[in-house]
Amino acid sequence: MHLLGWSREEAVEKSGIIALSLAILSIFVIAAMGRLLERFKDRVFLAIGIIMMIMCTTLAIPMGPGVPPRPDINMTTNSSDDGQGGCPWTYSWCDTTPSIAVAQYIVSLSVLGFGYPILQAITYIIYCKTLGPNQQGLFLGIFGAMGNTGRVVGPLLGTFIYTEFGVQWAEGCLLALLTIVATGVFPFYKRMVPYTVYQKKCIS
Q1: CA of 154: how far to CAs of 114, 139, 161, 190, in Å?
Q2: What is the pTM of this model?
Q3: Which of 59, 61, 73, 177 would suit a FRET pair with 138, their CA atoms being 20 to 30 Å apart?
């Protein structure tokens, strides 16, 4: 909204269309995964999901052209209406942060539409399969609690970083977090096998 100069009404309308489009895309992605998982290993989709999320976040970093527009100032009240669109005057980083092209924004969201449902679904699948029969309820509860905590803390922290430092810092922190996740996951890539497969290897 701020970087593209959309008004509040435009942002609500276009964000709704984007959210609906991503939801429909996610349904098709999950449906296709059901078929593809019969041919490929689970960990392949984990790698694809992480890589696509890193690509999406990188593409979401504004690269120009120019800087975001500012809302007009009412000379009578010496104030601006942030609802008319543009980067609010209260955000000092708007003067130094590049804007983002609509095409770049659409490509980033398209990659997100594929990467996020893949990563979310396959994470649960791999976690369940590697746990085995031992205390699945307890560990799935912990896993779900951690995810829900992230859904609360993430937006609060992201909003603070965005407001104080700008979108580049917000996307940069997310990119750093995804890089840490990738660094922690890929060294154990070959060990991410279902519990039954691991048992057979141990017996043999």
Answers
A1: 21, 22, 11, 30
A2: 0.80
A3: 177
